[in-house]
Design goal:
By secondary structure, the protein is of the alpha/beta class. The chain folds into two domains: 91 residues, Rossmann fold (3-Layer(aba) Sandwich); 107 residues, Rossmann fold (3-Layer(aba) Sandwich), CATH 3.40.50. It contains ten helices and eight strands. The strands form two sheets. A four-stranded parallel beta sheet has the order 2-1-3-4, with helices on both faces. A four-stranded parallel beta sheet has the order 6-5-7-8. Strand 5, helix 6 and strand 6 form a beta-alpha-beta unit. Helix 5 crosses helix 6. It starts with a strand and ends with a helix.
Length: 213
């Protein structure tokens, strides 16, 4: 009997594939199939059309490929979804919900870092809604690391990570817990956390715990 489960992963950028592959590479019972559409992010930046129909079409297309579940790794995609339009027979895993649970377990003040300004409003709105729904009180400040997101979109991953690392150094020591909201920021977060032996909350750790658990 084959117990392997196939997860279709919807990404906004191909750079997210490596993060998900590395996170699940030790779990032989999970097979990943990746779907990437960076064009949607460009439309989000203009904010001049309703894009929810596009995300719904993408999910329907992935579901038709015979996967057992769908993982959405882009918070912009998640923010565009209209819950009342979702009617899938397979689970839809939103990467930010396990992340929100982790954030809500932190009692001290937190700073949540972004590189993509277009992601902030939708993510924070969903975070506050999640906290209210689960009767949690959170003390968070959302901050954008300016002039960095275009680096990863251009494929300049080293410069992107270096910019994030530099920002970590600048904010260290102010007493707040640090979190990064985007999957593309995880590598820098893991590197900095290891160097200083600290904890930085990021979406990948909570995702693996959620899926495997």
């Amino acid at each position: 009997m084959d117990l392997k489960k196939t997860i279709g992963c919807l990404h906004a950028h191909h750079s997210n594939i490596d993060y998900i592959e590395q996170a699940f590479n030790s779990f032989l019972e999970i097979e990943l199939v990746h779907f990437v559409d960076p064009g949607l992010i460009q439309h989000v930046a203009t904010a001049n059309v309703d894009l929810s129909f596009k995300v719904k079409d993408q999910l329907e297309w992935i579901a038709s490929c015979g996967v057992d579940a769908i993982l959405i790794t882009c918070t912009n995609y998640i923010a565009l979804l209209k819950e009342d339009e979702l009617s899938f027979s397979i689970p839809i895993i939103k990467i930010d919900e396990p992340f929100f649970q982790s954030l809500c377990e932190v009692s001290q003040p937190q700073i949540i870092l972004f590189t993509n300004p277009a992601t902030v409003d939708g993510t924070m709105e969903r975070l506050y809604h999640y906290a209210k729904l689960h009767h949690k009180t959170i003390n968070v400040q959302a901050t954008v690391i300016d002039n960095t997101f275009e680096l990863i979109m251009q494929g300049n991953k080293r410069a992107y990570n270096n910019a994030i690392l530099q920002y970590f150094r600048e904010i260290m020591g102010d007493g707040r817990s640090i979190a990064v909201a985007q999957l593309s920021m995880v590598e820098a977060a893991q590197q900095f956390a290891k160097e200083l032996d600290i904890e930085i909350t990021h979406p990948l750790q909570s995702l693996v715990e959620f899926v495997v658990g």
